[in-house]
Amino acid sequence: MPTRVDPETTLSHILFSSGTTGLPKGVMHTQNGFKHCLNVLSHPQNGALNTNHRVLIVLPLFHIFGLITAIGGIVNNAKVLLLEKFKPDTFLKVIQEYKATYLPVVPTLLQFLSKHKIVDEYDLSSLRDIFCGGAPVGEGSEKLIAKRFNNLMPRQIFGTTEAGGGVIIMPPGHRKSGSVGKVVIGCEAKILDPESQMVLGPNKIGEICIRGPNVMKGYLKNEEATKRDLDQDGFLHTGDLGYYDKEMYFYVVDRIKEVMKYKGFQVAPAQLENILFQHPGVKEVSVVGKPDDRVGELPTAFVVKQEGVSVTENELVQLVAQHLHADKQLHGGVIFVEEIPKTQSGKVARAELRKRFQSS
């Protein structure tokens, strides 16, 4: 007799967290949880992925974003195009030749699409939906994409490996600059004060916590980490800072562990990066804190220059100074580099950048 399978408890898959702030952990998801994640993509509120879509996947399938959108496309009868890895000319050629309509990306790919000169050499008019997840995307990046793609605004999505994919998504046709959207049907979200653990109201920054069938069963052979990240009420503590407005649109500030502390003030790298990226001479940028015995950390920008465009350290320092309070500026200055290191999932490897301070 075949063994009875309980989808509530039987594992569908084990993925490993990206390990951007520590060692990767095995994240266990049940069959019911995975089914819910796939259903999210086909729901009209989230864009109704269907047979009319041609989905281009350049994200790795060992990453939750790539896995969910690839299998989500298959189960919804969409055409799914898989690329082994990202190569600019191949990536753009596939969009043009196969007329891709649905494109899930991470912020580094969005930066490429918004500023790289080679993009103008291809016809990408078939694109109807650009999903971006993995890190906050600022208003400047959104506007650059809209300008280049005939007013096509990227839709932001918030999710983690532990949450099982997208749990907060910008609905199609809705536009709130800088927002990742609204909580998907079947899930709940709350904002907690990281210190007091009190639930916060609208426009108060705290940790984003998620509850729903999509949330992981736990970490593989790691009960301590499971108890730390899953509370007694079933809420997943994501480790991301954010808030929601009075219309229940959510905004992501940054990872709690990435926030820098300068003279006691909290400085979110994403806020500085979004300002710097608006400069035409900035091709890529990442901000990290340089350790300092006096003030804690000095916000420092690592910048890849845009070819053919002049930009100086002073210009970028002044650009940030025009937008932010003195305590949130580039007190560590700007370091120009040939490239910014990235993880296999396409995220910026901030730990590698911090190592450069140790050797300097």
From TrEMBL:
Pfam families tied to this protein: AMP-binding, AMP-binding_C
One Gene Ontology biological process: bioluminescence
Segments passing through the bilayer: 55-75
Cofactor: Mg(2+)
GO MF term set: ATP binding; CoA-ligase activity; metal ion binding; monooxygenase activity
Residue stretches making up the AMP-binding enzyme C-terminal domain: 272-347
Domain of life from the UniProt record: Eukaryota
Cellular localisation: Peroxisome
Principal place of residence: other
UniProt-listed InterPro entries: AMP-bd_C (IPR025110), AMP-bd_C_sf (IPR045851), AMP-binding_CS (IPR020845), AMP-dep_synth/lig_dom (IPR000873)
GO-annotated cellular components: peroxisome
Family in the record: Belongs to the ATP-dependent AMP-binding enzyme family.
Protein name listed in UniProt: Luciferin 4-monooxygenase
Phylogenetic placement of the source organism: Eukaryota, Metazoa, Ecdysozoa, Arthropoda, Hexapoda
